[in-house]
Amino acid sequence: MQRMGMVIGIKPEQIVEYKRLHAAAWSEVLAKISEANIKNYSIFLREPENLLFGYWEYHGTDFKADMAKISADFKTQAWWKLTDPCQTPLMSRAEGEHWSMMEEVFHHD
Q: 38 φ, ψ to 5°?
């Protein structure tokens, strides 16, 4: 299992909409996340900095392939058309990233 954290900005005027969307997340999108070996997925909001922090645990063996399956999913693409306009990717993100992946520097069970 690999713990993964990621961060992205959120437009202040879109926070209410982003929360509304995630309060009723589509079951098909959630199923695709589970099929891609992702468990224990959470998104946290930090105001007034307007940052979203995502955390999940990846239980698969081929992260790129699993992410490609999610990206190819029609329902997930439709979901992203609603959620992506709420977000502001960080200028420092790596090429090809929307959410910026983070380095784990400490963990304690």
A: -105, 130
Structure tokens at 80: 């992203």
Mean pLDDT of the chain: 97
Residue 93 CA, distance from chain mean position: 14
Q: Are 73 and 50 in contact (CB under 8 A)?
A: no
Q: What is the value of pTM for the model shown? A: 0.92
- Mapping DSSP to helix (H, G, I), strand (E, B) and coil, where does residue 95 land? coil
By the 8 A CB rule, do 9 and 92 touch?
no
Give the start-to-end residue ranges of the domains of the chain: 2-101
Report residue 35 as tokens: 């099929």
* Top CATH class, 2-101: alpha beta
